[in-house]
Write a structure and sequence with these properties.
This protein is of the alpha/beta class and 341 residues long. The chain folds into 2 domains: 9-125 and 228-321, D-Maltodextrin-Binding Protein, domain 2 (3-Layer(aba) Sandwich); 128-224, 3-Layer(aba) Sandwich (D-Maltodextrin-Binding Protein, domain 2), CATH 3.40.190.10. It is built from 13 helices and 14 strands. The chain has helices at residues 4-34, 60-73, 89-95, 109-113, 156-167, 180-188, 199-209, 237-256, 263-266, 272-277, 284-288, 294-302, 305-312, and strands at 37-41, 50-51, 57-58, 79-83, 100-101, 117-119, 124-126, 128-133, 148-151, 173-176, 194-198, 216-218, 226-228, 231-233.
Length: 341
């Protein structure tokens, strides 16, 4: 016969579990009731999140939110994009101003713990670099001793710059400017000898903002690991699950060869993995609290990860970035999804 202590402990555990489940679903329920996702993005970074003259947002970070909207609502347009500066972004997420931060943000221990955030995966593997004008004749970051370097505050970039300078005995003169547009203007006007941020961001800035892109170059050094990905608040477990597995589904779709145009055709496949992913074999949608068409709808909205990459930052874009680490695991990169089953 079970003791009263054991029974009480079991009851307390069950109560905590039920309460946790209720809390975990509260955010997702609130978003469903509102009918749209509030997605925090950058104030304008080509390839990741940028609005055109008509106010249409594009980029990898934008596509992540559109994919989640499609998975949740069956419509990738049910998103409101909220542009945030580097210093605004975490407060906006913590206060509930946005539901998810999908804004070229690096996944770090301090952010994942002390700031009370949960990162839902890595959507782009990046690293910090330097850009200079070719006329400086600088060929390496180690030649920047005494140089002025433009850098944004409230970013991993600022700390990485200081750490790398100390480790390599290179004394920089940081020029700290908060707004992205102002830091770009400062660099291109010659106020700074170099500009440092994620290498993808440098490529985007050179391609879209430089008066003459060919007059500028990225130095060879990559001085940090910058795994970029979406984040939500601690406690938003079911919401985090949906974002995490929607992105995983886009990666898995690339591995299976499922494109936006071929979703319906691929539903006829005999491959059990494809049938589960596209909802022909039910179960995965129920696990997430959404329709069994969740992954199919996400892929239709933005394409698989490879399509999303090439359109926004790859060879089909002005940035023309190689896949590098962001290639699939079976194509020389490190990008892969845990089993979607």
């Amino acid at each position: 016969m079970l003791s009263k202590t054991i029974i009480a402990a079991a009851a307390a555990t069950l109560t905590a579990f039920v309460a946790g489940q209720a809390m975990a679903g509260a955010k997702l329920d609130a978003i469903k009731a509102r009918g749209e996702i509030l997605c925090g993005v950058s104030t304008g970074l080509a390839g990741f999140s940028i609005a055109d003259s008509q106010g249409k947002w594009t980029g990898i970070d934008v596509d992540v939110c559109r994919a989640v909207a499609a998975a949740l609502f069956g419509d990738g347009n049910k998103v409101k994009f909220v542009p945030l500066s580097a210093q605004q972004r975490f407060t906006a997420l913590q206060s509930g101003e946005v539901d998810v931060l999908s804004r070229n943000t690096t996944y770090t221990q301090q952010r994942d713990t002390a700031l009370g955030l949960n990162f839902t995966g890595v959507t782009y593997y990046d690293g910090q670099g330097f850009m200079v004008a070719k006329k400086t004749n600088v060929k390496s970051a180690k030649e920047l001793g005494g140089a002025t370097v433009c850098v944004q505050p409230g970013t991993t970039t600022e700390l990485n710059l200081a750490d790398w300078g100390r480790a390599n005995k290179v004394a920089f003169k940081p020029v700290v400017i908060e707004k992205l547009e102002e830091i770009e203007q400062a660099f291109f006007s010659g106020r700074c000898d170099a500009y440092t941020t994620d290498a993808s961001g440098l490529a985007a800035t050179r391609a879209s903002k430089a008066p003459k892109p060919d007059d500028y170059m990225l130095l060879p050094e990559i001085i940090s690991k910058e795994p970029l990905g979406p984040a939500v608040q601690h406690g938003d477990d079911q919401w985090a699950d949906l974002i995490r597995w929607t992105f995983n589904a886009l990666v898995e779709a690339e591995e299976y060869g499922i494109t936006a145009a071929k979703v319906e055709e691929m539903k006829k496949s005999d491959n059990p993995g494809i049938k589960r992913l596209l909802g022909v074999t039910p179960g995965l949608g129920k696990n997430l609290g959404v329709s069994e068409e969740w992954a199919a709808n996400a892929i239709k909205a933005v394409g698989n990860y490879g399509e999303m990459y090439e359109r926004n930052v790859g060879k089909g874009s002005p940035l023309k970035l190689d896949r590098g680490l962001n290639a699939l695991w079976n194509a020389g990169g490190i990008m892969y999804s845990p089993p979607v089953r």
